[in-house]
Amino acid sequence: LVVSFKEQLFFDIGSIEIKPGARTLLRRVGEILARGENQIRVEGHTCDLPIRNERFPSNWELSVGRATNVTRFLIEVAGIAPVRLAATGYAEFRPVAPNDSEENRTKNRRVDIVLLSLDTK
After folding, report:
1. 83, 24, 70, 81: which is closest to 44 by C-alpha?
2. How far, in Å, CA of 102 to CA of 48, rounded?
3. SS3 annotation, 37-86
4. What pTM does this model have?
5. pLDDT tens-digit profile of 12-25?
């Protein structure tokens, strides 16, 4: 199961801070996930437009930062046991759409919460 959160709802462009309006939705999803036993992987993704600034030298840091902030939120606010969670960043290298238009780039800027099968260690 993959729950995908688009950048527009969750983050400002170039930011890893979860928007206040997204926190309620993420808390609700997290509280549901907290009831289970599955391992959860939080995946950060970006489009192919490069980001190069002091805080984020590349899309790798941006994608990992977003995944890490969502993971910390799930632990601290939703009460998911840290042992069940992992954060990873894929930068622009796992797109869901070709990066050939702003509409498609928007689809690629996302955080996915992946609920792994119980037999996955």
Report:
1. 70
2. 11
3. CCCEEEEEECCCCCCCCCCCCCHHHHHHHHHHHHHHHHHHCCCCCHHHEE
4. 0.93
5. 989 999 999 999 99
